[in-house]
Amino acid sequence: MNQRGKPYPVLPMHLPNQTQQVDLVGPCYLSRQIRFYSLHSIDIAINRCGIEPMPSKAAQSIIDAVYAVWKRMGIPENLQVDNEMAFFGSPSHPRGIGPLIRLCLLYGVDLWFIPPAEPWRNGVVEKFNDHYRQKFLSKVTMTSEPELRQASLAYEHTHNSTYRYSKIKGQTPLKALARSGRQLIFPDRNKAPQYPLEKPEEGLYHLVRFIRSDRKLNIFGEMFSVPSETQYEYVVATIDVKEQKLKLFLDKIQVEEYKYRLR
Questions:
Q1: Neighbouring residues of 227: CB distance < 8 A, sequence distance ≥ 6
Q2: Which of 141, 208, 234, 241 has a CA-to-CA distance to 162 between 20 and 30 Å?
Q3: Does residue 123 contact residue 93 with C-beta atoms inside 8 Å?
Q4: Homologous superfamily of 11-180 in CATH?
Q5: How far is the C-alpha of 110 from the C-alpha of 115, rounded, in Å?
């Protein structure tokens, strides 16, 4: 079954910060073998980027990096990521509400997980990752973490102020942002919240999944049986934190509901 031809839920992308795509590159190494990861965020409406180097994929590093990007780019309405374990938590505790999920819920951001093994769903940030490797990692010599941070910020600014994209009529991302008149919302604290974040009491996060012949829905390793009409279709599994329920949608119509007690 070729799922590429199936209807797929599309997030809003007409205005700046309606949706950001986020991904990790790494592990990478500086010339002295210092290991790091690089978190990338792209505003898919205007291709404005945020780049934040990280020492590891630990919970606090993820929180710090995403928060730092939000301090420069603003907080998005939707944040889309792949199923990297650092983004959702641990498969041993699928209902544990990982650090990125908690951060998004704390700031009212709808977090979306794309289907496993479908990286093209995060195609804008994936393409940027290639540019980062070719135009930055392979050309800039850095020997320390301060140099890495300074060079990353410089490349971020160069991209946002000089790269021109046909989808925004040949403008740079910063010019498109200025012309949009969009008022951005920024985090209210200078420092990122510290891990572990408090368990949220409300909010939504979502997983897009393709249902195969076994009619099983995989939520971070936990399996749920789904209705027959979802077979060979993309569904959206929405976790409602306040109601402690998992709601299943097909073409924006709710087709099933499960009790889902978060831990």
A1: 215, 248, 255, 256
A2: 141
A3: no
A4: Ribonuclease H-like superfamily/Ribonuclease H (3.30.420.10)
A5: 16
